[in-house]
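Sanity check record (used in CI):
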Amino acid sequence: MSNSTTVQSVDRAIAILEILAREGATRVTDLAAELDVHKSTAFRLLAALEQGGLVEQSGDRGRYRLGFGVIRLAGAASAQLDLARESRPVCLRLAAAVGETVNVAVAQDGATVNISQVRGPAAISGHNWVGQRTPSHATSSGKVLLAFGALRLPDGELERYTPRTITSPDALGLAEIRERGWAVTVEELELGLNAVAAPVRGRDGSVVAAVSASGPSYRLTPGRLPEVGELLVRGAQEISERIGYYG
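Expected output for Glycerol operon regulatory protein:
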């Protein structure tokens, strides 16, 4: 299947979801007519969406409606939006106190993804990490998510990004991170970039995110990391309480 055909199929699948959201349970023939495709094409698209739980057949034979998979996705998106919103005032204070960039990251599809960022007063210019997937073993947030079970390491040797990247799973010190309550990276993702992160817990007590501070190694020196780590632990606790954790 060519790229253009794949994109067209995705566009049509999205259109089906939008039609069902607007109209409710709809017959295949009506969906095909609105999409201007053959009925067999509409059936194939519906079958793929049904397999993913995004649509389901209603009680009326030949009609389809949105499935519970849509609710699951909406719930996940809503939770991330709530986390980004509730963490922001805490991140603003942390960024001001540390002077560096503060991020909130979550586990997504086996990687660490940043969903919120606040730049501190010293970070006049810097990389925008929001929406970016980063390798978990080479980032402080990722190490936190690994240590507390929100992510799992891939099998085998880990990818090296700098001469300081830890590529042996046993050398990541995940047990020490759990005991200490925060994780660090020292030039492990990029040369000249250091970071420290602490876990954020959800309502049930499980770790759902990590809050981190990152900056150039000449400012965020290894000697500062423990102090900043303790600040982040307190900030992470406040974020956890704001999203419903009271452990």
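The longest strand covers residues 207-216. If this sentence no longer matches the regenerated tokens, the check is flagged for review.
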